Amino acid sequence: MSDLIRQLKDIIGDNYVLTDKSDLDNYGQDWSRLYQPDPIVAVRPGSNQEVAEIVKLCQANKVSIVPSGGRTGLSGGAVATNQELVLSLDRLNQIANFNPVDRTVECGAGVITQQLQDFASENGLFYPVDFASAGSSQIGGNIATNAGGIKVLKYGLTRDWVAGLTVVTSEGEILELNHALVKNATGYDLRHLMIGSEGTLGIITQATMRLANPPQEPTVMLLAVSDLPSVSHLLEHFQSNIDLMAFEFFSQQALEKVMAHRELKTPFADSAEFYVLVEFECPGEAEMEKAFAAFESAAENGWLVDGIISQSNQQAEELWQYREGISESIAHYPPYKNDIAVKPSLVGEFLQQVDSFVTTNYPAFENIWFGHIGDGNLHLNILKPENMDVETFKETCAKANPEIFSILKGFNGSISAEHGVGLLKKDYLNYSRSDTEIALMKAVKKVFDPNNILNPGKLL
Prior knowledge:
There is one protein chain. The protein is 36% helix and 20% strand. By secondary structure, it is an alpha+beta fold. It folds into 4 domains: 2-89, Uridine Diphospho-n-acetylenolpyruvylglucosamine Reductase, domain 2, CATH 3.30.43.10; 95-210, Uridine Diphospho-n-acetylenolpyruvylglucosamine Reductase, domain 3 (2-Layer Sandwich); 218-327, Alpha-Beta Plaits, CATH 3.30.70; 333-442, Alpha-Beta Plaits, CATH 3.30.70. It has a 7-stranded antiparallel β-sheet with strand order 13-10-12-11-15-16-14, sandwiched between helices. The model has no long low-confidence stretch (mean pLDDT 94). Keywords: FAD, Flavoprotein, Oxidoreductase.
């Protein structure tokens, strides 16, 4: 151990090799808070070459590596539980080589999501991948989990904005993938294989990200809804009448948590069972008239019981708080999260079946529903009772998973829509992937990481 520490310090310097327990607990954990961290050391390299040298050293000493970004993950994908080396990429935080013609910019893996969003805005452009953890999540981690967020309906996932990647392999080789080309028909696209691989095939150190034109006058509707079938009717109705950027859903229980946590006022005089948040571009009167007409038609059909339409960017941001503050407001419980997805057309039916199962079989647990209904992604958060220890809570929730995932399998859904598989979901991969698919995934892992040193025990 002492020899390994000495060699690590030779590579990156004394200040960036961390062995104190407080540092190890910090860097060895993510937001899931369901696993006890136990790393052997944490390191913070400052360049691609330093990452490569650390990987070579670990390979030679048979030390496993857990890549670490902003540690905002919710599936245990960045948790070091078994004496691994935590490789933090937070010092790789430079933005460089902005190309206004190609609309691309190079980002180190440690660039904060909001940092990229702000850079794009300063240059008259837009980075559209957005979510509640944008102020602390990092681009490398977003790519490793193919993060989605609130604007997938219009702009797609992180995958759609990655023009090129720099990746360090398990042997310490540095790969430059795709070189930001728009068209490149030269065989397997290893860039896309790395995206969503959760650090199990290679360590993403840099990415060339695409940027877009900014939306014109984003406008938000917050709608109060009395039942789940109405949510599905509203999705179909607004998609037919408005070019949507986001269509979000949350329950009354979720709203109560956010209002208490952020000290917000209730948006409506009377509470409702569910709420829908709709965002769309509204650059002129014609678009606003269409939005009002769609709103009035939905009310006439009984699909909503109340609503607010933002009249300014500030009010739009205020309405978003009711949705974006949910994860933060329940993080301290901690919640047992199910990040699941079905086709958007099946969301209503699926949600009813799962909600009925959970409330019937686990009446003592508080369940918080929210999600990106527009792309079929739902978040079921079961909150840990105050008088229950974490291990008992995990075991109890795990008993429910086969039943929930069996329902999900009947809808041909995914056990993980955007949070990744990590430690939390790996035992349930067969509910979304066939035996043949899993065998091929394991074979791919063997090719890229034959000694299993890259984030072992995660995903597979």
